[in-house]
Amino acid sequence: MIKRLRLFLTLIPLFIIGASPASAESRSLRISVPDQRLYLFQGDQVVSSYRVSTSQFGLGDARGSYTTPLGLLEVSAKIGQGAQPGTVFKGCRKTGEICKVNARGRDPIVTRILRLRGLEKHNSSASSRGIYIHGTPEERKIGRRASYGCVRMKSRDVIELFDAISVGTKVEITKERINPTRLAQRQSKVLSSG
């Protein structure tokens, strides 16, 4: 019942902007490093927004740097469908352990994994470096730079995002701030002038 409700709530914005569920392929993600936010777009319309954590070591794609890569990437795999929130993954496989939110001394990858592949020369190592969007038990650190290169999310948020996108979804990680209000105003002007 809860999954159906989440799916319904995810689809509401599609009907508001006149899209159909079949147009989910036009969804994309934009991650603003200065905002520490991930935005789910349907075309130019923001569907959802989530607080995230990018790398505490800065930006880049050098091996062993623990940095978050910038530029255009895509979701190359979705791992963890149906896993319980807090399910621990090692090497993209369930360990059988469930980690509680904000468990002291623990920092595993949990709940869901969206594997990323870089599409540009300057982020081409993202996949081999193991750069993901994933759940973290360290939810108290969400909203500030705290990761080791990945994009971390709260478990409930990464589940919602996981269910809303597909493999091949484009992901842009940027140093620019994103103003959803300005984007919505621009979209409104385009619709009213057409």
- Write down how many β-strands occur, each being a DSSP E stretch of 2 or more residues: 10
Series of H and E elements? HEEEEEEEHEEHEH
Q: Under the CATH scheme, which architecture would be assigned?
A: Beta Barrel
Please name the CATH topology.
L,D-transpeptidase catalytic domain-like
Walk me through this protein's architecture.
- The structure is a single chain.
- The protein is an alpha+beta fold.
- The protein has a single domain, classed as L,D-transpeptidase catalytic domain-like (Beta Barrel), CATH 2.40.440.10.
- 22% of the residues lie in helices and 31% in strands.
- The chain has 4 helices and 10 strands, in the order H-E-E-E-E-E-E-E-H-E-E-H-E-H.
- Strands 1, 2, 3, 4, 5, 6, 7, 8, 9 and 10 form a 10-stranded mixed β-sheet that branches.
- A hairpin with a 2-residue loop joins strand 5 and strand 6.
- The radius of gyration is 17 Å and the shape is globular.
- The termini are far apart.
What topology does this entry show?
Layout: H1 2-16, E1 27-32, E2 37-42, E3 45-51, E4 71-79, E5 87-90, E6 93-98, E7 109-118, H2 126-129, E8 132-135, E9 151-153, H3 155-164, E10 170-174, H4 180-193
Parallel strand pairs: 1-10, 8-9
Antiparallel strand pairs: 1-2, 2-3, 4-7, 4-10, 5-6, 5-7, 7-8
